[in-house]
Amino acid sequence: MFEHYNEAVNWIHSRLKFGVKPGLKRMEWLLAELNHPERNIPIIHVAGTNGKGSTISYMQHMLTEAGYKVGSFTSPYIETFNERISVNGIPISDQEMLELVNEVKPYVEKIEQTELGGPTEFEIITTMMFVYFGKYNKPDFLLLETGLGGRLDSTNIVLPLLSIITNIGYDHMNILGSTIAEIAAEKAGIIKHGVPIFTAIENESALQVITETALLHAAELFTLGEEINVIDKQLYNLGEKFSIQTPFYTVKNLIITMKGQHQINNAALAFSAIDYLVQMNKVRITEEQIRKGLEKTTWKGRFELVNSNPEVIIDGAHNPEGVESLIETLSRHYPKRNIHFLYSALKDKEYAEMIDHLSSIATSMHFTSFDFPRAATGFELYSACKLNEKTYSESWQSKLDELLTAYQDQKEDIVVATGSLYFISHIREYCREINKRYR
């Protein structure tokens, strides 16, 4: 038994040595031993390459605006480890985290003595989350994000009210497959018999896989661009304005403060899912609550302004599709600005391709590293860049300080820190500390 929160979290992190072990047998064993807490929760299951967190945040804000208690399970965290398990957007307490670890730990030790072997960090956190929501703090809805893929993901032992696949692109190819169709097949693994599926997939071969899987499982399919349509899109102050048509309802002139076409798509997907639950008499919500919920929605690390002089935006664009969305959003909202990228990434990412894309709109590129076992060095990233205007430093703090000084009071210049979500969480915390100091 652990007495302190830090001990408990360090024990969870120590499970990283077990790596990623796709498969559901350990989860099935653990949850059976714990009397299946996951069966007591109304769940919306969300998979996809990008946009999972934002889509969950849109749903959470709409549902809480309507008075529901909404649990969420997301990853990775940006500020605190506890935010992975949240209620109405508020992370569980350190004491609750400690108690969950102490409850689950004996079962982890027990399964280690079986042929199934030791569970991974993600399996343990997922088990803790199911215990919390199924046994101690049952929500009206649990918004459940997959960790990796779908078919063999630790979360994929539930029968949800409905499932969502945001979009599909190239990421985690060493595990999920080298083609879009292979990756789509893994994501499609969350589709259950008779459970409706909502998707914003644009790639035709990926959509074909989802369509065939839905048909196989007699799951009603709602696709953005077919059953769900976004119309009248326009820039609006510091965000986006648009209308949505679903098979059941049309809502006009919605406003979101999160920027980009991809955020419009995420909001449309979230609204369509909630609208379906309204039709099924699972949710009671007014149009005003929908509007307020969407407009209030934010998501840490997604095109987030963290400093104003100079303007510093952080964005967790850690795969090619994320980078394309970032470029589109910058071009849409900051068309005449000088853009200076501060970039860091993990070694196992296709970073050369992403650096090329970013360089296409960059005034300058700056590279760095951070304290993480799989982080690429600043020099490795710098060497992959073809742009002439480029620098690097292995210290992200000194490089960021340099950029903050260089572009202070420069109204035409904007600094965009991007790449690994682990990296941008450091930038976010640092800028928040600076802003507190000078407030």
From TrEMBL:
Its EC number is 6.3.2.17. This is tetrahydrofolate synthase. The keyword Cytoplasm does not apply. It is an enzyme of class 6 (ligase). PANTHER family: DIHYDROFOLATE SYNTHETASE-RELATED, FOLYLPOLYGLUTAMATE SYNTHASE-RELATED. Residues 301-420 form the Mur ligase C-terminal domain. The keyword NADP does not apply. NCBIfam families: folC. It comes from Metabacillus rhizosphaerae. Belongs to the folylpolyglutamate synthase family. It comes from the Bacteria. GO terms for molecular function: ligase activity. SUPFAM superfamilies: MurD-like peptide ligases, catalytic domain (SSF53623), MurD-like peptide ligases, peptide-binding domain (SSF53244). It catalyses: (6S)-5,6,7,8-tetrahydrofolyl-(gamma-L-Glu)(n) + L-glutamate + ATP = (6S)-5,6,7,8-tetrahydrofolyl-(gamma-L-Glu)(n+1) + ADP + phosphate + H(+). Keywords: ATP-binding, Ligase, Magnesium, Metal-binding, Nucleotide-binding. Residues 46-273 form the Mur ligase central domain.
